[in-house]
Amino acid sequence: MFARVAPAESPGSPVGRLRSRLAKASRAAYRRFRTYLIIGVQAGLAAALAWVIAHQLLRIEEPTFAPGAAVAVIGASLARRALRTVELLLGIGVGIAAGDLLIALIGTGAWQTGIIVFLAVTGAAAARGTGLLMTQAGATAVLVATLTPANPDLELPRAINALVGGLVGLVVMLVLAPLNPLRTIRRVAGSALDLFARQMTACAEALANGDASQAEAVLDQMRNSESKLIQLREAVSAADEVAQFSPLRWRRRRAVSAYRDGVKHMERAYRNSRTLARRAGTALRDAEPVPPDLPAAIEEYGASVRLLHREFLAGEEPVQARDRALSAVRLAGEACRQEIRFSGTIVVSQLRTVTNDLLRATGVRRDKARHLVRRAAAGH
Predict the structure, then answer these.
(1) pTM value?
(2) 4, 6, 18, 87: which could form a disulfide with 133 (CB 3.0–4.6 Å)?
(3) What is the pLDDT of residues 323-357, one digit of tens each?
(4) pLDDT of residue 74
(5) What 3 state SS string does 174-217 have?
(6) What class is the 181-377 domain?
(7) How far apart are CA 239 and CA 254, in angstroms?
(8) b/e map of 184-210 (b: 16 or more CB within 10 Å)?
(9) All structural domains of the chain with their residue ranges
(10) Mean pLDDT confidence for 35-64
(11) Across residues 28-54, what is the average pLDDT?
(12) Measured between alpha carbons, how far is 252 from 162 in angstroms, rounded to an integer?
């Protein structure tokens, strides 16, 4: 009886796979919770303060939009919140202006509301406004067009609420509860670099095992990982904004600037690695010879990404990551001097490119990075 239960709970069984997925989802949820906890704290504090200021100090009877605007500033995106505050206020101004002008010309009603909103949104778009500006302009125009006849003095309190909420959101974000820019970057970048390293290892295994389907799976996974790059870019942008404008974080500006430059090059490395993975799959499907040094080189590059992650978290100079990346180029050079064909040579070429990107991410200047890669490729 017990012998039948064990296989049902083995890793390959439905129950085992379900448990594995639940554990993976739980770990991912915990990582997201840690990453965005400070955002929740900022949003709650900003909403409470905006309500108190609008209702208690300014005596606005309906202050609901003040905390809404504060939360919109903080929660719309991790990045460029100061700009989004300006967009929020501009959107309200555009909506009020369009609504007041058109009501005076064409009156109110269903079709009038549609025209007012259309012109407010397209006007914001013509001014190169973002989604937040256009949305706010349209929402304000709706309010003006539908409620102004019954509440002629509604526009000014709404504008004041928006101003209060936006300013409170900025004060909370930059003064009262600013995020730790380095901690934020390291946490998000660590997850992205760990995924990158695992994908490079999987690509190396596919080449070593001659498994074209595994190489294709790696490529699909890399294509589906764009959200990681977006999250990383937003985290770096938000950290840079805090370091530039928050007095409590000014001492972090130099370090954040270095990370900002490094992340830009790691994004390039990740995208260039997709070509590497695609050509690895092509080489396998075309039954091209795969010298053992080629998968070893890709595995070595994955190891360099892991080392970069560790040295990155420790705040150390990434010397080991650079050495392992150049070792990968040397191994790829050895593979190139053996029996290798068209797709294999492209894999080698892309490996040199991504190594150059990694060296740039560690702070190596462009000319020196190219020189180091050329020397390694020649076997030096």
Answers:
(1) 0.65
(2) 87
(3) 999 999 999 999 988 888 999 999 999 999 999 99
(4) 77
(5) HHHCCCCHHHHHHHHHHHHHHHHHHHHHHHHHHHHHCCHHHHHH
(6) mainly alpha
(7) 12
(8) bbbebbebbbebbbebbbbbbbbbeee
(9) 35-176, 181-377
(10) 83
(11) 80
(12) 31
